[in-house]
Amino acid sequence: MKFSTNAVHAGNEPNLKDGGFGDVIVPIHLSTTFARSKVDKPTAGLEYSRSGNPTRGALEKNLANLEHAKFAYAFSSGLAAITNILLSLKKGDHVISIDDVYGGTRRLFTRVFQDFGLEFTFADFATGKDIEKYIRKNTKMVWVESPTNPLMKIIDIASVSTAAKKYNLLTVVDNTFASPYFQKPLDLGADIVIHSMTKYIGGHSTSVAGAIMINNASLAEKIKFLQNAVGAILSPFDSFMILNGIKTLSLRMEKHQENAFKVIEFLQKNSKVRKIYFPGLPSHKGYDIAKKQMSGFSGMLSFELNTNLKSSVRFLESLKLISVAESLGVVESLIEHPASMTHASVPPEERKKIGLSDGLIRLSVGIEDTEDLIDDLSQALKKI
Ligand SMILES: *Cc1c(COP(=O)(O)O)cnc(C)c1O
């Protein structure tokens, strides 16, 4: 079966036997515990909802399918998923991370896990060759986002994974920005994929959620153990919401991308826009790699206005349809100012170093009618 079919059906198969009702969508199983008739035999393998729940289980089956993974685990947030991966490491282990990493991920690395003895190097890399100089004796993991947030840098996932394997390092890819519809890191050689399902996978701004997808069975066993031992599981209700969101993932991604290209066409003609960051533009630094490893470019783009900070703020506050808000990848268009919002936790000198200017605006193009989005951007740009 192909992507859209699996997105609709995997994990959602109606139960037509064993007293099932034939529900075509997975019910919300709120029970925290499951009764058994034999003391040593959990009914349907279910014991307690932290260790396993039918609604979450259905979602996990669907998620594994989306990323061509054997195993998937759902968590209460993207950061909870990331936390569980880091908890599989030991004190003294070293992680090489892309420098332009999601602000909350960087905060978790430097302000939480560093205190527990994990070491991090933030580096600007695009290929496997680039990471070699950062490898130490205690390096265990390479942390990749592609496209990155918010500068849309592209990292060659196949090349980084190949180099990492040579040194016995695990490659983790945060695939939130591309979504599994446009990019499948496990197929490119990565060991672990994570998602903030709060974004494209869920897509409707209803649930904060995270996921881990893996092929290696012993690694999966470790994560499954941690999911239960740490307890940052996704609730049955949110599992249900995400499972329903996924059914339209392919349709949404196509529309996000179509709208992004049209909005870019408009922005390119506006003299107040200095620079646009979008991996689907041939002028983008990572375009060739993006073409090779992605089947599309999603609806995430950033641009720099030709004005000062005050005017950038006036532009944002003049928008009527597009909401100024954090988050991304959802049906409604959202816009934000990384320096004062999503990346405010990154120290100013760090922001400067990675090229994250005060005039940078990040736009998550939704699935509204294109003309309405362009009209809104146009009237707000006229105010500066
Ligand atoms: C939002 C986001 C996260 C964090 O996910 P939450 O669901 O907010 O915890 C991690 N990585 C990327 C790229 C994100 O956009």
UniProtKB/TrEMBL annotation:
It holds the Pfam family Cys_Met_Meta_PP. InterPro entries: Cys/Met-Metab_PyrdxlP-dep_enz, PyrdxlP-dep_Trfase, PyrdxlP-dep_Trfase_major, PyrdxlP-dep_Trfase_small. Keywords: Pyridoxal phosphate. GO terms for biological process: transsulfuration. The lineage of its organism: Bacteria, Candidatus Gottesmaniibacteriota. One of its GO terms (molecular function) is cystathionine gamma-lyase activity. PANTHER family: TRANS-SULFURATION ENZYME FAMILY MEMBER. SUPFAM superfamilies: PLP-dependent transferases. One of its GO terms (cellular component) is cytoplasm. Coiled coil: none annotated. The modification N6-(pyridoxal phosphate)lysine is found at K199. Belongs to the trans-sulfuration enzymes family. Its cofactor is pyridoxal 5'-phosphate. This is Cystathionine gamma-synthase. It comes from Candidatus Gottesmanbacteria bacterium RIFCSPHIGHO2_02_FULL_39_11. It comes from the Bacteria. The keyword Zinc does not apply.
